[in-house]
# Entry
Amino acid sequence: MSDPVQPSDEAVFERFLDGDAAAYRTLIERYHDDLLRFLTRLVGDRTAAEDLFQETFLQIHQSAHTFDTSRRFRPWLFTIAANKGRDYLRKRGRQRTVELSAPIGGSDGSASFVDLLEVDVPSPDAAMDATEQDRMVQSALSRLQPALREVLLLAYFQRLSYQQIADDLGIPLGTVKSRMHAAVAAFARSWQAVTREKPERAD
# Structure
């Protein structure tokens, strides 16, 4: 039977700093699914996300001595991952623009962006299987500017306040608020467009 009380990320990281190589592996395994899903959503490519996952933990290893162990490990990890993703998108030149003035809209009872970003739950639409929804969500996300997609995904995966996001990304609080507002509106618009483009089922 497993120990119901797991050590905190910060305690595990302290062990790594003290030379416990197994602690580093523990952190990789603990964040494998969440971080890989985040990176896949951010860059839109599973293979690239796997490479970026490795690069992120390499950076964690190389920069371990710079981490303030009085702070939380998870925001630091995801911020490094977001930076890696941003660099990848910049190199690939995958800057996409969207019209951000559209209202969030939708009086049809469609799912919120948080509902749609959750990969591992069944679709609220019984006619849409999980694989199809996953593809459509990724398509909608890919239409957002990287800076908007980054803030949206960081907020979802970390459940951080605007102030925490501002601190982690090193940008003004007002910028976070405006990006989040624009990101939610843009995602809603993109989701509606993807839904309209979805081929009708034969049945």
Remarks:
- Residues 94-127 have pLDDT under 50 and may be disordered.
